[in-house]
Amino acid sequence: MTVSAAPVFASLVGQDEAVATLSAAVDGAAAIVRGESVTNGMTHAWLFTGPPGSGRSVAARAFAAALQCASGGCGVCAECHTTLAGTHSDVRSVVPEGLSISVDEMRALVLRAASAPTGGRWQVVLIEDADRLTEKASNALLKAVEEPSPRTVFLLCTPSTHPDDVSVTIRSRCRVVTLRTPSAESIAEMLVRRDGVDGASAAWAAAASQGHVGRARRLARDPEARSRRGAVLAVPRRLTGIGACFDAASALIAATESEATDNVSDVDTKERAALEIALGGGGTGRGAATAFRGAAGALKELERRQKSRTTRAKRDALDRALVDLAGFYRDVLAQRLGAGVPAVHGDATADATAAARRWTPESTLRRLEAVLACRTAIEANVKPQIAVEAMMVTLWRG
Amino acid sequence: MTPSGAPHLVIGDEELLVARGVAAAVAQARTTEPDAVVEEFAAAEMTVGDLMAAVSPSLFGGRRVVVVRDGQDAKKELAAALLSYAASPEEDVVLVVTHAGGAKGKALADGLRDAGSTVTNASKITKVRERMDFVRDEFRRLGGKCGEDAAGALLAAVGNDLRELAAACSQLVADSDGRIDVATVARYYRGRAEVSGFTVADAAMVGDLPGALEALRWALHVGVDPVPIADALADGVRTVSRVASTGRGSAYQLASTLGLAPWKVERAQKQTRGWSPDSLAQAMRVAADCNAAVKGGEEDRGYALERAVFALVAARGSGAV
């Protein structure tokens, strides 16, 4: 990390180049706010790309804080604090919880983006997971990105600049900030420094996370995440016959579904209770029941959104499991071919060695590809159970 | 309480059977008095006053039949009035209450039953076996005769709606000499009315390619969505795989360990012949590809399904060697 980077960028792990670009932009932005005509380094639309877990949204949020902060991102002032906490009045952020971002949501956002910043610095619009914009929503956004108000900044986060992720029209109007997959060492260093994890488990979690910072932290701190990962890594051992494949598939699906529902069901009930009270539910006395009668539509709408969120949570959980599984087969392949790369799952090397002795490189590669094909299939809306079952039979037979 | 005065309760939600139950009660009343007057009420709109007026003895004598439809919708007061009437019914009045049989208004149904009502069951027929019996009884009632295979053919051609089945039965008896066999059914009815993805999957899993393709064509023709058909194919492979891997055993025992219905296990046990673990693995891959294909992966979903059926049967053939 460069010495001159503002403290707010400290949460970015191993992204020196991106931090340098952003720091220059923050200097340019400060000049614009001061009224100087130097526009060097700053622009109105930014596209943060990088693999999952590299900190796209962290980078975007830190950049937003640095723009709002009078001293360029000190990390301690009220502006920095509120931006990082997501409560700053001039930072609108869209964090999709469902499977897609709708056009209605985007139109409302574009309307707000046209107003002048209340704090006198920048009006920031931050869209996490811009790859989930629907086509219509993306077109609505395009209008605003094409002709922005002078003090409005758009920050979009997508996995890549591929047309599947972000439309070419939007991409061509943005400056791209590319984040790298952080190295295991820099993740481990961050875990030790920021979360106080001991060195050995930090190194293990950093390797097992395959460059995903958030996942590394969860693995290092949450014993349940560790045990779920352990169960996933036990899958290749358990595939002893065709029946076992189906059992393993249903166990994996059940585990990821319960993980997902555990995560969202609390929020679901809380949201529902809050909405019911807001609509006059639970009231007593004359007219209370009548007042609540029209609420069914609003509740149904909430349920629809919650269902979309649950579906996404299930898919994300399953995807995490599949990434872990792919890591295992990568280790087997690396062992078999005698490649000198460090293992992803340092604690499963015994299994990997045993498997490397039995399988040919071709069959290992077929297994690895089956895991990746399963991820693609689930993305293409194949029933997760069927996709995982088809993957399991290939993992078993090779 | 005399038997003639006891109320009738027709419980269930199969329209045809309800209508028949009510008609039977009316007919029974008319055996003793051909001029009996029939009054009909819908329970939702009926008041206690209506009931009192309807069941009080007439000055001029004569039997009366009071039909209260949809007893489950009766309001509290009416339900209470019906029950108190049922406890001491008039001899000249026949009360018939129909009830959908669900949890709604259950107290009324239970109360009437306890009060010694004549209960007629009119619940929906769900099992194939029972439907078959219904068809055969229907022919017998109309003075005809029919074998099991003919009843099956009629069910396949006409579908599961009892009213249509009853109509088809009476038509067949009227058109023939009363002896109904498969040829008679085939002369008047062609095609398949009830085809689901499971029909396709069952045929494919036993390697019956023509049967599977025919069922698939019919299913698409009658408007079954391709997605459930693809799901059914995957389900077929899954069930056979799980049953095949557990080896032989009693269907009931396996059913509890696998968490499947006993009849499903029994059928899968018959289907396992001809499959090897490798061919099942291949079949599962086919099913998954098909699932992606019908969800937008391919232009022509019908063709994707057809190809999957071919591939499934081919996979089975490769395993038999």
Rg of chain B, alpha carbons: 26 Å
Oligomer: heterodimer
User: Helical residue percent of chain B?
Assistant: 55-70%
The helix-and-strand class of chain B reads alpha/beta
Q: Overall mean pLDDT score of chain A?
A: 86
Under CATH at level 1, the class of the largest domain in chain A stands as Alpha Beta
Q: Based on CA inertia axes, which overall geometry of chain B fits? A: elongated
Secondary-structure class of chain A: alpha/beta
CA gyration radius of chain A, whole angstroms: 24 Å
- Summed up, the domain count of chain B is 3
What percentage of amino acids of chain B are in beta strands?
5-15%
Number of strands of chain B: 7
Biggest interface in this structure? Answer: A-B, 20 and 22 residues
N-to-C span of chain A? 44 Å
How does this model look, in words?
The complex is a heterodimer of chains A (398) and B (321). Chain A is an alpha/beta fold. In chain A, 61% of the residues lie in helices and 6% in strands. Chain A has 17 helices and five strands. Helices cover 61% and strands 10% of the residues of chain B. A five-stranded parallel beta sheet of chain B has the order 2-3-4-1-5, with helices on both faces. A two-stranded parallel ribbon of chain B has the order 6-7. The mean pLDDT of chain B is 85.
